[in-house]
Amino acid sequence: MRPQQRDKDAPVIKKNCYFCTNKITTVDYKDSGLIRRFMSPHAKIMNRKKTGSCPKHQRMITTALKRARHMALLPFVSA
Questions:
Q1: Distance of CA 64 to the CA centre of its chain
Q2: Which residues, 6+ apart, have CB-to-CB distance to 54 below 8 Å?
Q3: All structural domains of the chain
Q4: Cross-strand pairs, 45
Q5: Cβ atoms of residues 78 and 40 within 8 Å
Q6: What is d(CA 38, CA 69) in angstroms, rounded to the nearest whole number?
Q7: Whole-number Å distance between alpha carbons of 47 and 53
Q8: What pTM, to 2 d.p., does this model score?
């Protein structure tokens, strides 16, 4: 079996949105510790499939991360 193929009998684990479960309504760009959870080690935005966030909160994360980068709170790239 090739590595990219998933076993059809394996259960699909649904990840819950971090913001929905903790009842967080807004994502603040100044909270860099929270935003870093949704970044890869190379300072890229991780996708919804990996983070498990819902579309509404993924858009908020993206906006907050871009604002934090512009204000020099987070890096654009990581070496």
A1: 11
A2: 17, 19, 20, 48
A3: 26-70 (4.10.640.10)
A4: 39
A5: no
A6: 14
A7: 9
A8: 0.78
Per-residue pLDDT of the chain (79 residues; tens, 9 = 90+): 566 666 777 777 778 999 999 999 999 999 999 999 999 999 999 999 999 999 999 999 999 999 999 999 999 988 6
Strand partners, 39: 45
Q: Which residue type occupies 71?
A: M
Cβ neighbours around 53 below 10 Å, total = 24
Q: How many degrees, rounded to 5, is the angle at CA 78 between CA 76 and CA 79?
A: 140
Q: Spell out the residues 6+ positions from residue 74 whose beta carbon is closer than 8 angstroms to its own.
A: 32, 35, 36, 39, 43, 65, 68
